Amino acid sequence: MPAFATDVPAQDIRFDVYRNGSPFGEHIVRFTPLGNGDVDVDIEIELSVRLGPITVFRYEHQAIERWDDDELVLMRSRTFKDGGWLEVDVERGPDGELISLGEMLSDMIPSSHWRGYTPETRTILNTETGEPMPVEVTDLGLRTIETASGPVEARGYRMAGTVTVDLWYDADGRWVGCEFEARGQRISYVLQDA
After folding, report:
1. pTM value?
2. Which of 32, 27, 34, 3 is closest to 13 using CA atoms?
3. What percent of the chain has pLDDT over 70?
């Protein structure tokens, strides 16, 4: 079973997101092949909690990644978090190095989760901040994940960084599940159209 997606998934990935078992929002990853091995990956996350007409929590994240086969060419993101917007612009410079916030970065996988990680992964690119983020990845083994279309056997990886996230991938390396705790709330993802 692959530890990460070796090819761009044939279909988009759409999750319903739950907070302590109640609907919380959605997380969508769309893939657009551009030809010659290039692909654009559009990511949209919208989460909110309302009490009557009042929104008491709101999180939004929009990002685009451009990949040339297995190489990240650029990543742009905009995130609404803690009442303000963060914007990130990462591009591969003429010398082949990724550049973020005016600094050169070594190659690393973005924290968008769709490609997956391996236990050898030590640093990823934080898509909210554009900064390198140290992580520790542990193989959780196989488990059956419930999706909207039924159960799927998946391999799990726990990624401990600024947040500890359990991520699940099917036999093709497609991202099929996610669970984590944030601010004392249990967040879980349920894959649609698996």
Report:
1. 0.91
2. 27
3. 94
